[in-house]
Amino acid sequence: MITAIVLIKTRVDQVPEVAEKLAGIDGVSEVYSVTGEYDLIAVVRVREHDQLGDVIPGRIGKVDGVEHSETHVAFRAYSRHDLDAVFDLGVD
Fold this sequence. Notes:
The protein is an alpha+beta fold.
């Protein structure tokens, strides 16, 4: 599974509408409204690297209201939830 974090700028008055449109795109697993330089963060999860192009510039970039985006592709995940699950299985 390939994960990308997409930081998105939009007009402040369009945040809820843009977030809903983004959440409806196949490959987008979560959308967060956030404070700071960006207005939204979308988490994209796809099976193959080539699919990122279909989802991010092909669909996210074309959503009306998306003014700018910056994409970060994850290469390793560190999750407390995952670590707790491993210890629950008795793995050392």
